[in-house]
Amino acid sequence: MAQTIINAKEMVWVLDPSQPFAGPVRDGGIIVARVSPGCWGAMITPDYPSGHEVTKPIAVEGADVGDSIMIRVRKINVLSLATTSGTDVPQEGHFVGDPFVAKKCPSCGTINPETYVEGVGEDAIRCKKCGAPVHPFLYGNTYTILMDDERKVGVTVPPQVAREIACDAAHFSALPPESKQYSANLMARGDLPGLIAPLRPMVGNLGTCPAVAMPSSHNAGDFGSFLVGAPHEYGLTEEQLRLRTDGHMDINEVVEGSVVIAPVKVKGGGVYVGDVHAMMGDGEIAGHTTDVTAEVILEVKVLKGLSLDGPIVLPRACDLPAIVAGRSEEILNRARRIASLYGFEVEDEALPIQMVGSGKNLNEACDNGLKRLSELTGLSLDEVKNRCTITGQVEIGRLPGVVHVSMLVPRKILENVGLWNVVASQYDYACQRA
Question: What is the pTM assigned to this prediction?
Fold first, then answer.
């Protein structure tokens, strides 16, 4: 029997459509999840075949292949007190093919070995079989950031404070009981002290289960490309990679009040969430940011018959780029006067959507996002490019290859695909025009 509210506690590393989903949650129901930190904790935990730990996918009642699920982010509560992050360098000899997935003990050669912790620092995590340090990634420039009790601001700390935090790493991370990852705070690094960073919590990995098993951190075209022809059990073909759902977006507009519309590629959808960041600038330039434990509350709604290849993001109105923000009555009236002089009509009813695109690099990601917009709207690719140039734009979600393409879409097209009411509600369109 479907539940109105689901408490998502079980964590997974691999999104596998052959495994049973949690739930189901009712169409229109609520998911409450306490998620563990994203990248670094999972990355330094050798028996994790993924760079992320996310909630077990949850089935949504009535969601069938070819539908979409609207996921509204109602709340993000940061629970961690401190987190450690920085740039990374893969360490040869400590992985096979992919340091996120096939981690290897450099001494005994065990793949994804069980480990234990001895002390703090990069050599603290050791193979249970032979005792050798296992760290598929070396930290580059690395910081530990400490947050205030109200979770309003973070400040990066000096090395001696980072070491004190490392001695109680899991406490400062507020790791959920269900989490099996090591806290990144174990690294005891403070290379960038005194930096002030106000919190703006956002969700980096949010979406639906892909139609082929893949590590949760690789559910996008850039990281997913590492799986193509990979020499480990999660290797995929190019064709299989197209079954992804691009949940690992790292788009910093996915905050409280935003909406993600995710494709359903397996029955039930399999909504999952993870990889919350305390703050992140466009592009996630360092490759990683402030991964935190958080409580995330989501509202889910099935959109029947809306067939998507990848996600759509509807940011908060205040986060929309100016070029696609609502047109004022003054602008509309000026446009109408121009049109009336020559006897033609203007598109005075249009609303913005952001299509996610991903690929091996930003060019491929942009092409992917534009193609998806063309397929959704029925407009030619050339027309989409023109519209996205003069009434839209491309923004970087994550390097090397996730973007979100903004475009103003005419009302008739949004109505034809069943999105007008959804988008109008997000941007309070009726009130704007009253």
Answer: 0.96
